[in-house]
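Before drawing any conclusions, I looked closely at one protein's amino acid sequence and its backbone structure tokens, quoted below without any editing.
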Amino acid sequence: MSITLTIDGKEVTAEENQMLVDVASDNGVYIPTLCYQRGKPCLGTCRVCTCKVNGNNAASCTVPVSDGMVVEVNEPETKDIRKALIEMLFVEGKHNCPSCEKSGRCDLQAVGYETGMMVSRFPYRFPVTETDFRSEKIWLERDRCIFCQRCVEFVRDEETGKKIFNINGRGAEARIEIDVLLADKMSDEQVTRAMELCPVGCILKKAVGFDDPIGRRKFDIASVRERATGSENK
């Protein structure tokens, strides 16, 4: 069933119950995301896709559109909320972009640029973390994890369907864990997909990492905004 809604004052049509973040993207309105993957179940963990829906703040990846809905994406207060959320993610980990293997391909870095973040308004926490290198194929750089849960929900053993990654602990004690036995069974292609699925540089393929030359970095070719809205082909 086709419905009509308004996004930043522009009337658009969509299919009822489509996710708002997808409808906005299809109509050229960029909403940053870090946990959401189009076509996959919504996680709603990062909240950086927050916008105003009928006057209330909501994560747009969790909101199915409905007829008459009024959405504000780029009004000043909402833009600052998203920027603050990005800033918090930067200070809660250790994100040294110039030395990171995923620099230029990192979703967190890219949305930082898009939101205009230059420095965080919050104090840096400098958490003490442990790198996990027990797997034969995967290097787990916990400094960079933002707990988006993409790997937890979308990376599974191809034979049993069991989760290869999970989050252990709560609050400041939470950390990403890896089932080493299952990880060691992963094909090279599956490890690469897991590495690319991670929005930051937490999951790295041992002995390879990202082997594209620096001049071909993903977000140097087309920004995250252009990729989300399809405008890189226009």
